[in-house]
Protein: Phosphotransferase
Organism: Caenorhabditis briggsae
Amino acid sequence: MSSIVCHPIIKNGIATDARIKKQRPPPLVVARPRDLIQEACERLVLSDQQLRRIMVLMEKSMEQGLSGKKAAVKMLPTYVDAVPNGTEKGDFLALDLGGTNFRVLHIKLEGKETKMTGKIFRVPESIMRGTGEALFDHIADCMAKFMEENNLKDATKLPLGFTFSFPCEQDGLTRGKLVTWTKGFKASGVEGSDVVTLLRDACHRRKDIDIDVVALLNDTVGTLMACAFQENTCQIGVIVGTGTNACYMERLDRIPKLAGYVDEHNVTPEEMIINTEWGAFGDDGALSFLRTKWDDAVDRESINPGQHLYEKMISGMYMGECARVVLEDLAKQGLLFGGHSDAISTPHCFPTKFVSEIDSDLLEDDDRTFQKTYQILEDIGVEMITANDCANVAYVCSLISTRAAHLTAAGIAMLLNRINKKHVTVGVDGSVYRFHPTYPTLLDAKIAELIVGDIEYKLMLSEDGSGRGAALVAAVATRLKEEKLAAAATASER
Ligand code: BGC
């Protein structure tokens, strides 16, 4: 039978935080092995065996992607084959589009020092889902404003790094076709088109700004580069924010689809950063063995059903919604909120920041008063909240975030095992990694369990990879271009 003993905390003015404090809930439900909620949520707990299976399946999907066959994990070449050597300097512009905000940055690199000025612009939902032309006009408009305000309009064309955090099929450092939109974007006419051309066209349409795009990159690549600038053992870049993704340094001899590739210097590089686009892992059914009816519900209601299924079990855009559909189901089964599910039934009423806040109740609140949890439930309009409800909601949130951390750990551990170097730094960024109270620790602990041999790794928080990383990729590209011109000049003098 259920261990839920109801201590109603009714909301009509009698219930206050003080009352909750006095009414300590019994020990966390999680401690009671036969609890109905625990039973109902069993599938959200992943065993190490399941995580190891994920690692095998993901590597298989990656191998397929690298070979050029149709694969869920696309393994996109980035044409970034050199990390910064510390001599990069100069002035750069960086554009960063990857979520609800768009940033324009002016970056000065001087040795290990970076000076940045920037401005954040919102991307309204109407633009995210309007036409591609309107989206790129908005970007160009924001850029023009920034350049005007910072007296950059008359400056000679600054080299520009464009961080575009969506899957792009690149065939060079400055070209890339959008494979598919993710993270709630749906602007028409962009999928299949080169996003650098779309940006240039938008600048030409308004005639008052000119740009010199020297690099198009994914945010994971920026993250890797920004960390590599400080720590030359950095080989992996990971984002766990609105979306999730990873890139890593792969040996060219393990990228069959790039067989015969030579760069503009006629050289075959030894390695190249591969943008895995692991968010789409499972889109071919590989994750069916552990997906739940709740994951199906989140996917069904999303803007891109059937796509980016691994991302939908992990990232900030979906974590809250995933917790919400579990809570709604438990309420409908009569296991929460006295069986009242109305308040929790509104899609997206439970954003990921609630999961973080509730998880921090579990972490910080020794008395288990669940004040934040109560407040959140009350704010979204749940009518009958018991102390046990609070404990159970916190339990569900911790299951969802732990599952997300463990799924990510499987991906990172697989990459570490594959790279198989003694010391590897993993650059990580994104709002879930930065702001969720337990996610980084859970991630780290599980990676340590899943790696094999004597690999030593460390997770390093990347300082603004999307901005600084874009300038660094632009700087490396500019340095290599200058070196090439100098070499050509010397050759012609001979
Ligand atoms: C995109 C990736 C991106 C990640 C993190 C995903 O939805 O497909 O390209 O790196 O989000 O921003």
Notes: Residues 331 and 340 are 6 Å apart (CA to CA). Residues 387-419 form the longest helix (33 residues). Confidence is low (pLDDT under 50) at residues 1-34. DSSP finds 16 helices and 15 strands in the chain.
